[in-house]
Structure prediction request, 251 residues.
Amino acid sequence: MESYLNNRRHPVDVAKEILKSKFPNASIGFAAGSFQRGEATTSSDIDLVVVFEKVESAWRESFLFEGWPIEAFVHDPETLNYFFQAVDGKDGVPALPAMVFEGTAIPAPSELSFKLKSRAEKVLKGKPEEWPKETIYHERYGITNLVDDLRDPRNNLEAHIIIASLHESLGDFYFRANGHWSASSKHIPRRMVKLDPQMGKRWIQTFEAAYQGEHLKLINFVEELLMPHGGLLFDTYKRVAPTTWRLPDGE
Prediction:
């Protein structure tokens, strides 16, 4: 049996054992994660999508198994479809469809696994809900505030916090404002490289330089990415609260 990082069993073998011992009545499972891309480290986990014929409600749970951290996402076909469409589809980050589509079917491929993979592929080949102009407007303002903070940070720690916030906000803006599925955290540059290798390379180099103190390079990069959508926004910005946002005076 193949060993894998710190002499642990291979993730697929571990996933098969989990399905057998912890979810014996499941119809199918999908083992996914960084190991499939050859990027696993000693701290990597195994993403395991478990599909039953019927569950009262979907759930997610985390546990350790044979030295592996496991993130289990438990569904039936209907709850899986709901998450594909109404959760990941709304958030714009297709994490669950990607796990199913890229994951290894366990214990073995079946008619059901092919059906669910096909459904996941259809989601991934489609596009997320289009961002309305109002959302783009407000997001431009938020990013502009971060840029203004980065122009003269008080210290290196503050600068690094701002850069990290910009990485998250600008990444989501770039993907969603241009009609693409989004990503978060460490997955932003990975998705960027996959979507546009040249842009991905610029993205990585620009943020690495920013962490080394080249803040102006990042500021100019942000201005460039926002320009097709109206550019930085502060002067004339306005946001009106809903009329229902009020509580009676307690006095």
